[in-house]
Write a structure and sequence with these properties.
The chain is of the alpha/beta class. The protein contains 13 helices and 11 strands. 34% of the residues lie in helices and 18% in strands.
């Protein structure tokens, strides 16, 4: 296996892009990433996307993006892994370069969600759950996470207010990110006054429906090609799965796919939780932040919320998360979120994150989670 690095990044602002199509925002991200890399010629294109067929009527998404970006006749494949589609596209691109099949490839994440009413989007998102035993009985995706949050509160004696620091931190970090959707800071009082979506989850626990696209250029780092930026090495890349439905798990509060993918990535990179300078986790809901911190070895069960309460998750803390807003503050365009995480991690490792910069960042972990912890993709990036 060859060493693989990321040499180019691109992104469009996360927003409600009423006047722009899926292929339009994807092309913006692709063009920016290729230019950032010095305009190489990629051999393949992998596009992370979950909902285009349901919400835009467009499948064959990768070919649509390749055509719009002027990349024909490039090899182009859509990658779907529910909310982990962006991370899965990065992994597909990584494996392609590592194997020697191509020397340079594009990984893109794109999602267009705001052209439909919320009910339609919620129904589409529910397809990430178990269609036979969850979604068909009317259990929405937010309801599944509400069940997890209620169980966590019961098991560990935690109040709803103790989840507030996750959202406060995300919005604080998004304030300086010009690509973020929500750039206003919030307080704990704002969180507590937020309307309930599915008790105990409130609006400010939840990442919003939005549109976005981000792109990466990956290459073999052991060649002599001159790139505009030093490659950021992918030191670890792993994917793991768990049962599709929550009810089938021995312990629904232990996200085994997250555990397994993180452990495999740690082993590949030769690092552990103490070596991670920043963690871009999948904070689609605040409960996911707590469970992910625990599953990845940063906290014992029940202590994930305490990391937040103690300020450890802040940019100046021991375990900085969502350093440029995360899914909550930046926005969560489903298939694109994992690639946005990588773009933000690259800024940290290049030292170009501006006011969001983590001093001397050398190792950043990013993680995409699909369904209710049913698939997890973890990457460890190093300067």
């Amino acid at each position: 296996m060859r060493n693989v690095g990321i040499v180019g990044i691109g992104q469009c602002p996360v927003a409600e892009h009423w006047d722009r199509s899926l292929r339009d925002i994807a092309t913006e991200a692709v063009t920016e990433a290729l230019h950032d890399a010095g305009d190489p010629t990629p051999g393949a294109l992998y596009v992370g996307n979950m909902l285009a067929g349901q919400l835009t009527g467009q499948e064959n998404v990768a070919t649509a993006v390749a055509d719009a970006a002027g990349l024909l006749p490039i090899e182009a494949i859509k990658i779907e892994a529910a909310c982990a589609a962006g991370g899965a596209a990065i992994r597909a691109a990584y494996l392609t370069v590592a194997s020697g099949a191509h020397d340079c490839v594009l990984a893109v994440g794109v999602e267009k969600m705001t052209d439909h009413l919320n009910d339609s989007v919620s129904a589409a998102l529910a397809t990430a759950a178990d269609a036979d035993y969850e979604a068909s009985h009317g259990v929405s995706f937010v309801a599944l996470n509400a069940l997890l949050m209620r169980r966590y509160m019961h098991d560990h004696g935690v109040s709803r207010e103790e989840f507030a620091p996750f959202s406060v931190n995300a919005h604080r970090n998004a304030a300086g990110n010009r690509h973020a959707m929500f750039r206003d800071e919030i307080s704990i009082d704002d969180y507590m006054a937020s309307p309930v979506v599915a008790d105990p989850i409130v609006i400010l626990d939840s990442a919003a429906i939005c549109d976005g696209a981000a792109a990466l250029v990956l290459c073999a780092v052991d060649d002599d090609h001159p790139y505009r930026h030093p490659p950021i090495r992918i030191a670890g890349s792993a994917c793991a799965t768990d049962t599709l439905g929550l009810s089938e798990r021995r312990d629904p509060m232990r996200w085994q796919a997250v555990v397994d993918s993180a452990d495999a990535a740690y082993r590949q990179a030769g690092v552990g939780p103490a070596d991670i300078d920043a963690f871009e986790l999948h904070d689609a809901f605040t409960i996911v932040s707590a469970l992910s911190l625990e599953a990845c070895g940063f906290a014992e069960p029940g202590d994930g919320v305490r990391l937040a309460a103690d300020g450890a998750i802040r940019r100046e803390g021991d375990v900085p998360i969502a350093t440029m807003g995360g899914l909550k503050g930046r926005g969560h365009p489903i298939g694109a979120s994992g690639v946005y995480q990588a773009v933000e991690a690259i800024h940290q490792l290049r030292g170009t994150a501006g006011e969001a910069q983590i001093p001397d960042a050398r190792t950043v972990m990013i993680q995409s989670v699909g369904g209710s912890g049913s698939v997890a993709v973890t990457h460890i990036l190093q300067a």
